[in-house]
């Protein structure tokens, strides 16, 4: 199996775990892997407790050799994600509601339980 296939499978497993986690929080999944010409949003959900649309960036790693998964979400990446959030909202005709950008880091080390770290962002 090629490294790119392994990486995609790892990312998909991490995303599936993140979706299970936010569903357990009571959130509704509105979209997954939404793509446009500018990029991709991993998970779009609704948090009913605060009545916000939450855009969740998921980063998964199989170890910490390259740092924590959340280290991959740089300032530049955050700026790009904010642009994508606005494009998603425009495409779906949603406005006038609270939005938030969250991140979930997933660490999948062999022979250990998955570790999820959820960082809640600021209101958009």
User: How many domains, as an integer?
Assistant: 1
Q: Summarize the biggest pleated sheet.
A: 5 strands, mixed
The quaternary structure here is single chain
CATH topology: Trna Endonuclease, Chain: A, domain 1
Characterize the structure shown.
The chain has a 5-stranded mixed beta sheet with strand order 1-2-3-4-5, with helices on both faces. It is built from 2 helices and 5 strands; from the N terminus they run αβββαββ. With 124 residues, it is an alpha+beta fold. The mean pLDDT is 91. Helices cover 31% and strands 35% of the residues. It has a single domain (3-119), classed as Trna Endonuclease, Chain: A, domain 1 (3-Layer(aba) Sandwich), CATH 3.40.1350.10. The protein has helices at residues 3-24, 75-91; strands spanning 28-36, 39-47, 52-61, 98-107, 115-119.
Short synopsis of the structure:
The protein has 124 residues and is an alpha+beta fold. The chain has helices at 3-24, 75-91, and strands spanning 28-36, 39-47, 52-61, 98-107, 115-119. The protein has one domain (3-119): Trna Endonuclease, Chain: A, domain 1, CATH 3.40.1350.10.
């Amino acid at each position: 199996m090629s490294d790119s296939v392994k990486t995609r499978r790892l990312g998909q497993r991490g995303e599936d775990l993140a979706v299970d986690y936010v569903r357990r929080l009571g959130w509704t999944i509105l979209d997954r892997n939404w793509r446009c010409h500018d990029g991709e949003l991993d998970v779009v959900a609704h948090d009913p407790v605060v009545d916000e649309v939450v855009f969740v960036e998921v980063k998964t790693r199989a170890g910490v050799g390259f740092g924590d998964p959340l280290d991959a979400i740089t300032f530049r990446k955050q700026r790009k994600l904010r642009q994508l959030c606005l494009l998603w909202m425009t495409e779906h005709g949603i406005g006038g509601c609270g939005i938030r950008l969250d991140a979930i880091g997933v660490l999948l080390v062999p022979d250990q339980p998955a570790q999820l770290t959820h960082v809640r962002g600021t209101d958009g």
